[in-house]
Each structure stands twice: as C-alpha cells, then as structure tokens.
Amino acid sequence: MKKHTLSFKPEINFSVIGIVSNAAEYKLAFEVNTAVKISLDKSETLLSFAPKKKKNESYEAYLFIEETERLRYYLVKTKQGSNLLFPDYKQID
After folding, report:
1. pTM of the prediction?
2. How far, in Å, CA of 76 to CA of 42, rounded?
C-alpha cells in the first residue's frame, strides 16, 4: 500500500502588547480588568520551552476567554527569576 503524508502548518495569529509596570501581577490584572471590562483570572502556569537550556520554564499567567469571538487574552509575567520568556528582548521584563 502506498503511504501518503499529510503536511499541515497551523496558522497562529496573535498580537503582543507590552505593559511596563512595577505593580504586582494581581494588581495589574485588576487594573486591566477594570479598564478594559474583562475578567482576567489566575490560570494554571503557562509553559515555555527554552531550547538552549533544554528544559521547560514556567511563567505566571492570568487568562480571560471570550467565548463569542473565540479569543483568549493572557497577562503573563515575562520574567521568573533569571528566566526570560523572550530572551532576545532582554529589555522586556
């Protein structure tokens, strides 16, 4: 029997907005909720793979899911200890 291979590249469409703040995550989540009228709630830890270190790093996150538009909003602390979510952009923490 002839073997067929299906090739699939999922489209990932997202936007990133950076917020610089000295506030704790829960306070920032509250302020964003109030200003934008959404409900960011603390979610399970968001994981990111770090290929150079060959280990998973975890980052705290708040999540809001808008069912009607099928959108997800994340508020993520991009620096956990010495780990950076975006290591190429060290000025973002």
Report:
1. 0.73
2. 10
